[in-house]
Amino acid sequence: MINHLATLGLSRLPSSAEELQSAYRSKARSTHPDNGGSSEKFVAVRAAYDTLRDPVKLQSWAAEYRAHCERQGLTVCNRCLTASRKEARNCGCAPSEQTRADQVRDAVADELTDFVVRVTSRVGDRVADLAVDLVDQGVKKIKNRVTKRRG
């Protein structure tokens, strides 16, 4: 199974024709025989571009690609064709639609995290100050005992 995305150096299907054309031009320049590339690689780049820019060819190739990935234990996102071992809806190609409850939960979690950091910092500073005070008191007691024994 030829991965046309990888042939063009892409990890996912571009969201616009301009992005696809840019990837094609970049890869075509580097693989062209006049620039030190091989004619086989250049032909593969051209075939990948032709397939991905034609909606009919893309649909046919995408169906084969999904089937191939599923046989490998991968899931494929329906929007960007990213193959991964995790659930495809989490590929990150589209902004997630958060409910109001999710937004509130996230905001509360952020505020709680900030609060814990502030409290921990203050408590840590207080504990350090108390430890220094206790050490100072202990040193004073030792000095007093030493001077009493000498005197």
Domain module count: 2
Number of strands: 2
CATH homologous superfamily label of the largest domain:
DnaJ domain
**The level-1 CATH class of the largest domain:** Mainly Alpha
The largest β sheet comes out as: 2 strands, antiparallel
Mean pLDDT: 83
What is the CATH T-level topology of the largest domain?
Helix Hairpins
Structural class category: mainly alpha
Order of helices and strands: HHHHEEH
Structure, described:
By secondary structure, this protein is an all-alpha fold. The protein folds into two domains: 4-90, DnaJ domain (Helix Hairpins, Orthogonal Bundle); 98-151. It has five helices and two strands; from the N terminus they run ααααββα. It has helices spanning 4-7, 17-31, 39-53, 55-71, 100-150; strands spanning 75-76, 83-84. It has a two-stranded antiparallel ribbon with strand order 1-2. Helix 2 (17-31) packs antiparallel against helix 3 and helix 3 packs across helix 4. The protein is elongated and about 100 Å long.
Which descriptors apply to this entry?
151 residues, mainly alpha, Helix Hairpins, two-stranded antiparallel ribbon, 2 strands, elongated
Task: Give a summary of the structure in a few sentences.
By secondary structure, this protein is mainly α.
Architecture blueprint of SSEs:
Blueprint: H1 4-7, H2 17-31, H3 39-53, H4 55-71, E1 75-76, E2 83-84, H5 100-150
Antiparallel strand pairs: 1-2
Helix pairs in contact: 2-3, 3-4
